[in-house]
Design goal:
30% helix, 17% strand, 2 domains, Thiamine-triphosphatase isoform X2, CYTH_domain, CYTH-like_dom_sf, Hypothetical Protein Pfu-838710-001, elongated, THTPA
């Protein structure tokens, strides 16, 4: 399994008057951070049922959280956090069982030509057909729907 960070969170619910008491002790709000997470799963909630969490954090990219201690059963409190996309894809394939991973995404220009200028794409294939495939695609005949 790929190396990742281990995140340990302790959550608590402050009692009434906690903020006021902190201010009495001299505490001040240094700064506030707001972010938005989008979580992804299968329609069957396969990731959640396996205690795995795939999210895209606004401005930070993809994160995949999986249980950190394998000997513990039930809900976990320690999670390993993967942030490198190849490691995330590999772990997703392992958890979801046989989800094919695309080696490299096709270049934006290739996709544009395929979708909106198929004649130009065909010319490109003709030019490169006898030598090599156009850069950015591993299968020159690949069509996106």
């Amino acid at each position: 399994m790929a190396q990742g960070l281990i995140e340990v969170e302790r959550k608590f619910i402050p009692g009434p008057g906690t903020e006021e008491r902190l201010q009495e002790l001299g505490a001040v709000l240094e700064h506030r951070v707001t972010f938005r997470d989008s979580y992804y799963d299968t329609p069957e909630l396969s990731l959640m049922r396996a205690d795995h969490w795939l999210r895209q954090r606004e401005g930070s990219g993809w994160e995949f959280k999986c249980p950190g201690a394998t000997s513990v059963s039930g809900p976990h409190t320690e999670y390993m956090e993967l942030t490198a996309e190849p490691a995330i894809v590999a772990q997703l394939c392992e958890v979801l069982g046989g989800v094919p991973a695309q080696e490299t995404a096709p270049a934006k220009l290739i996709v544009y030509l395929q979708r909106f200028r198929p004649q130009d794409y065909q010319r490109l294939l003709e030019v490169y057909g006898s030598r090599e495939k156009p850069q950015g695609t591993k299968d020159p005949d690949m069509r996106l729907g």
